[in-house]
Amino acid sequence: MNKFINLLFLSLVLGSGAVAEDNIFTNAKVAIQKIEKNDIQFIASQKSEQFIRGSKVVNPHLLSSDTILGKMPCSPFYSCPKQVEAYFSSLGIMPTQSLILYDNSYGVYASVLYTILESFGHKNMTILNGGTSAVKKLDPNQKLFDKYLNEIKAVRRVMQEDNSSVTQKKSEATIKSLITKIEMVQPHLLIEKNLNFALKKRSNYVIKEQNRNYLLSTKELQNAVSRVRSKESNLTLIDACPMVDIVGNRYGNYLLGVTPLSWKRLIDRQNNSLQAKDELENIFIEMKLKKEDLNYLYCMSESSKALFMMLVMRELGYTNVKAYTGNWSVWKGEGNE
Questions:
Q1: What is the pTM of this model?
Q2: Of 28, 68, 123, 269, which has the most beta carbons under 10 Å away?
């Protein structure tokens, strides 16, 4: 019997009917069942040495519209519509295509891409919580692959300790056998190192609608600063990148009256994923954030962290939430107009 499990049977192994879809974030157990489906495209939103099989790579930083002078010509959008249309057309992606976004940075860069696409009307998307690490943990073929690699390492240690011809000859035969097994299992892995960069057929990615519901403009941010200083009760301005994250010292925040909540508190470093839902709920309760209130977020070093926190809050039911798509230089640049 073939010990390698292919995608056709993997959904049965994982129990395909037992897991429901999440809202913005999805888990690896759901995502694995969709690998290499014709109507679903996996998008890696960060350069990496490992990719989910069949992925395309989109670098969200290439879509930033901010200039060196601290201007955002398409504010409050992170990117300009024509820029997004050209980029996704070159990748052969359609506006109606279902996308599963992922990275190996806790979902931070996938959150940027999600926000960009959502702001221009792309609806069928989700972010894979845990990225490639979560997929590897569930792939039975990966376990075999890693097992064979570890066995080769163990044999090589024996060869270093025992130089006798008998041991060397026996060890070489064992390694050769293990390499054959690795070559057999490798095509079945869900995570691959080399993507197919063959020329892709262009699409016609056309933006037909715009969604500013979750985007915070510079003027709105400036107004929010005044409102929190006047202690408006139903608005919280959240700094997702407190000074301690940026310079390592607790000198406070760039803006007075804000609530400092580091994006790092939301992540589980060991599993390269979000904290458990209960833990996230407790963090926001501890910070006295109310789901019915206005919650505005910014990060003056890099807007990706604010966008990430915004999506996490929305996942937990914080509907009146917006994030600033610029950084400190943009805020100052546009604020001086």
A1: 0.88
A2: 28
